[in-house]
Amino acid sequence: RTLVTRKVSASRGAASVPDEVFHRAKGAQLCNTQAYHCTPAFFADSFLLNKFSSEVIADRSPVPPTARVVGERHIISVVPVTRVVMSHRDRSFTFYIIGLSNEVYIKDYPSR
After folding, report:
1. In sequence order, what are the residues at sequence separation of 6 or more whose Cβ sits closer than 8 angstroms to the Cβ of residue 85?
2. Quick one: CA dihedral 86, 88, 93, 96, positive or negative?
3. Disulfide engineering: 38 pairs with which of 9, 22, 74, 95, CB 3.0-4.6 Å?
4. Which pLDDT tens digit goes with each residue over 81-105?
């Protein structure tokens, strides 16, 4: 039985997109580690990814004394987000193209 499953996202620059949209979008997997006790991922060219990975690992939930850890999984995926600003009949609106499958998220779509 899985004790804790947690998804964490860092969405700098696309804060208007809800987390559930990010979590269902497909991205490029950069790291997939499975071990008894996972350590933070290391990327030689990305201080921000290293810091994020370290924070997620450090913030893991404590294991109750009656539970037994079989293994942990640490997966890091990058989901591309493109912000598009358009105008339609003198009204401007913003939408986002998210993930490798180009899912579109529009919060305030103009009426026809």
Report:
1. 92, 93, 94
2. negative
3. 74
4. 888 888 878 888 888 899 999 988 8
State pTM to two decimals: 0.69
As a whole number of angstroms, the distance between CA 69 and CA 46 comes to 30
Nearest Cα neighbor of 38 from 7, 8, 69 is 69
Please, are residues 27 and 61 in contact by the beta-carbon 8 Å criterion? no
Rounded to the nearest angstrom, the gap between the alpha carbon of residue 69 and the centroid of all alpha carbons in its chain is: 25
**Backbone CA torsion sign across 51, 80, 11, 87:** positive
In the Cβ-directed half-sphere of 10, how many Cα atoms lie within 13 Å? 11
